[in-house]
Amino acid sequence: MNTSAFVLMAATAVCVHAQEADFGISVPVTVSGGGLSTRRLQVTDPGESTLSGGFRVLLYPTLKLGSHWFGYAAVQSRLEPYFYYDAFQPRHQLRTDVLQAFAGYSWHIGQTAMVVKAGKLSSAFGAFPLRYDDVQNPLLDQPLSYVTAIPLRADQIACGTRDLLRQFYGSVGESCGGAAGRGPGLTPVTLYGLPGGQVEVSSRGLDGRLQLTVGSPSNSQPWSLARQYLQWAAGAGYTIRHDLRVGVSGFRGPYLSPSVSALLPSGTIARDFPASGLGLDVQWARGRWTLSGEMQRFEFRLPNFVVSPSVRSSYIEAKSMLTPRLFLAGRAGRLRAGRVADSQNITAAEWAPSLTGIEMSAGSWVNRHVLVKASYGILHSEGDSSTRFNVLGIQVVTTLHALNQAFR
To answer: What predicted TM-score, i.e. pTM, was given to this entire model?
Structure first.
């Protein structure tokens, strides 16, 4: 289900007791609690326990303002570490993020539906951001390209190939200027909102979206930098049959942070060194089976390089309903760094180790509002045969409506 469909369904829900009302407010809520067992928690502190827990609350306030106008937001609060990727930095702190917050206008012309949005939006690139809710995701973890901090930073400049090869996942400190010290790298595609606007069209099995945002899906920027960092992302799909859809998406634009502008070669600006992505996604469902997958390629242009760093990522996910309440699911994915060559003609076939992620889960609906899931995730880095990054996790997910009110 795409975001617009979810929003319109939520807006319609406020009219259950007053079907002719054109105005109303609805606040669906997803509340989740979970526990983790993993040695990831000991990466930064060997004395840390291998057990931890957290919770997550997602609010989806939706406001219907007549037959065309609506407002929508998705606000997340979580106690870390909650996600598997949180476990690398077990800070035990409460964090709140506005995932989406926008105003929209929708209308129909015959069999064609159109939506215009403006505000903070999920990236138009990729398919997984629309399944970020714990109810929509049958597993506990997320695909690698959406959560992996690759060993490359937007606020530092790498001197060349040798500099890149000295970096590590989660600890990056490039040598040719920028922010001081070491820190995590950038994520190819954020699961959090980007400021911007979007147009969506769907008609007779075709769907498309065009998005203009401030900053890259790899490095968002504030509204105040719209002039320097405006860029595009787009996606389209075709439902071949009722059970099979194929989609493509892409983005391109500046990603380097403003703090490194003075370090760029004379006569160049951040826009001369863009990040770009190209993706293919597939969804299929028949009977008790559901399959989905994505293939993506990202490139991050940098000064000092003639072949800039690139990353390829792919995954396939399967879910089988054993009974109306019980399901099994699995996901296998891979992230691989590409070839690089710097201006000194120093090359490397891969600028970072390849990662492989495998996760298996089981889930059961206790009732229509409560879901219990358990999973085991394996994360393997090329050249490292240990199991220290594997995770055993459990989640209890509850859905409810905190508010559902229609008015004239």
So the answer is: 0.90
